[in-house]
Amino acid sequence: MINSETYSSLHERLSRWLLLSCLMAVGIGQSFIFTSLPPIGREIGLADVRISTLITAGAATFVVAAFLWGGIINRIGRVRSVIIGMSSYAVTITLTGFVLQEALAKHLSAEETYYLVFGLRIIFSLGIAGVLPSVQTYLIAHTDIKHRSSTIAMIGAAFSIGMILGPAFASLLSSLGLTAPFYIIAFLAGSIALLVVFFVKDTKHVRQFVKPPKINWLTQPVMPFLCMSSLSILSMTGVQQIMSFLIQDRFQLDVAQTTHQLGFAMMTMSCFSILVQMILVPRFQLGVVTLIFSGVGVGVLAQLAFIFLDSYAGVLFAMGLFGAGFGFLFPGIVTAQTLLVKDDQQSRLASMNASMQGLGAALGPVILASLYQLGQLVPFFGLMFGLIFMLVVFMYCKSKSGHAF
Predict the structure, then answer these.
(1) What is the pLDDT of residue 208?
(2) In this protein, which residues make up the domain named Major facilitator superfamily (MFS) profile (predicted)?
């Protein structure tokens, strides 16, 4: 017989992994579109600029929607929010696949397809914007403070794994048909949503029927950490954007060679980031101060490696360091945020943080690509000074607030 304590522990563990699977699925849904949509869009006659606007519209909607989800989560509950988000994900991705399939069969014009997919991308982003803050708030509520940084690290790792798997799924599944990835990934999301319905219960959530007072985030002590969160995501997406330029320019490669070498560099960065977040942070139970100091230190070393190591092996080494630095920095920043607000503000904080991360993800490629135009090494000097500035701000905030991170 399984006693009640053992059953409760198993149920908590199952709930945890199902919710982390939701984040992995969201990562897949966010990234596979970069591989699947461009070739299909060209096939049905959409201009490259229009294809880009479909992706940009989704990203912009995510930034706004994530901010709004905090109050919704408080009212309807964390688990319900996850279910709504994942169900919306499954339905909209299925419909997107169907619309593109009809367009490929010439049953829809390129113009009709564009507007239909545009609308579906908006609805998709409105739904998934609530998944990350809901999952983060749930896991924080069901984890003691001592293990909070480990929990945040697992959240980041789950999403990162999904971002890696998305393009891989799209490439492999497209052999079954150009729109096959849409249906299979939607089925995956729908299946996870059903499992959450049956197996995840939230006994610690107290629904707020009275509208809580507004929070002026600009005056809150957590605001510098929200900016740090945005800056960390900005640096990650920015480096991903300029890395193809750097590899092609530094080693004088053609497009095919650049794509091949870029794949290895991206994989190296992602693997080290996941390694740190899934193994090192949980294994050693690292605190906020250690995480942020380690993240900034390793991140600065990565920028120096980009600047001074000219070989391709040097680029891989720098990308590995950069991924590891992010793996330390991200959970440190988010854990610090959660320690600075009350329990009843966690969902609104998580929503605000997701919105700030979305803003950083949108600005990163533009800012670092612009810096790259000034000089091949300018972005790395900029990132190095940005990391050092982030550390100075953290030390100032820590001394001013007196909070024992």
Answers:
(1) 58
(2) 1-400
